[in-house]
Each structure stands twice: as C-alpha cells, then as structure tokens.
User: Fold this.
Amino acid sequence: MIEPGPVVLVSTMSGKKTNIMTMSWHMMVDFEPPIIACVMSNRDYSFDALKKTKECVINIPTVELAKKVVACGNISGKDIDKFKKFGLTPSAAACVRSPLIDECYANLECKVIDTKLAPKYNIFILEVLRAWIDRPQTPPHHPSSGQRQVRGGRRDHQAAFQDEIAFILGISVIWNADVPCNGQVL
Ligand SMILES: Cc1cc2nc3c(=O)[nH]c(=O)nc-3n(C[C@H](O)[C@H](O)[C@H](O)COP(=O)(O)O)c2cc1C
Assistant:
C-alpha cells in the first residue's frame, strides 16, 4: 500500500555483459546534485554488477513496455541476455558504460556515490550524471509530443521540461546537458 513509483528498468554492464532489472523501490534524496536511493536485492544478478561497476542507467519505460517490464523483473540475467530475449535495444550512454534502453521514454545515467547501506539494507545511493528523453514516446503517466531531444540548454531554460519530467518520474531531476559527467556545472 505504500509502494513507491514509478516502476523503472535498471540497466547495467559488467565486463561485456549487459543486463536489465525491474525496480520500484527507489526514492529521490536530493535535488542538486540529483541523488536517488534505491534498494537492489543481493539475490539479483544486477546487485553484483552495480556493486562492482558503481554505475547504472535508470530507464523510465513507456506504458507499451509494461509486459516486458514485468518480464524483466521475473527472470535473472545471470544466464540470459534480457535485451535479446525481450527485444530491447541497448545504446551508448554518455557518462557510464551501462547502456541506455532505447525504447524507454527517459534515461538517467547514474553513478553509485555511497554503498554504506548496501551490506545491511541493499540500499545504493546514486547520483544522476546525465538525463535523456525521447519525447515522441508515450510517457508512463501522461501524454506528450514533440521531437526527440538530447538534453541541452541551461536549467532555467528547461523549467517547463523539468516540470514535465519531474511529474512523470514522480521525482525531481536536474535536467541539464551543461552539466558534464562529473556533475559539475560548466
Ligand atoms: C514491478 C517489479 C518491481 C521490482 N522492484 C524491485 C526493486 O525495487 N528491488 C529489487 O531488488 N528487485 C525488484 N524487483 C525484482 C527484480 O526485478 C528481479 O529479482 C529480477 O529478476 C532481477 O534481475 P537480475 O537477477 O537479472 O538482476 C521487482 C520486480 C518487479 C516485477
């Protein structure tokens, strides 16, 4: 009854192996820099990848992906390639090796900045380094339209967009391509 949302797909890359897991236990922690806490079970294959590589992408799925989202959350990527099995497309991220999932509405490139709570609670603290959106896609919670956009422009020029994505995500995210991968404002 107090389940948080939205359900997201977390993509990782450990060595040459990419993986995807479904996640709903996450929460916004801070605005600037944008920090997210998430719970990833140590029984999940993704746990080891996140712990080892200290990076991932949080992908915001569209409603059309609902079945695949559930499927990714009910099978381990240990012995299968979920990108292939579920017909999802990996594409290169800017700041991390973990792939973006092309079919998703938005993608947040993240680095792990704190693992202190991982041994006891499986909680990882992530900082969002870069965010992407595919506006023609149907977002998970409300309709939108427009051109595919890579984040550009300064944050104050992007207020409307930020409001939109914050609404979609149920969180607030710094949305700024002027922020390089280390999170420092140029
Ligand atoms: C809707 C949904 C939400 C989920 N949320 C989480 C979550 O927040 N944390 C978690 O550890 N597992 C969660 N899971 C379970 C993992 O996605 C599942 O164990 C998955 O198979 C792990 O994949 P992996 O072993 O390839 O990493 C969720 C599953 C579903 C279907």
Strands lie at 8-14, 17-23, 26-30, 35-39, 55-60, 90-91, 100-101, 106-114, 123-134, 148-149. Residues 141-162, 170-178 have pLDDT under 50 and may be disordered. The two ends are 42 Å apart (CA to CA). The first strand starts at residue 8 and ends at 14.
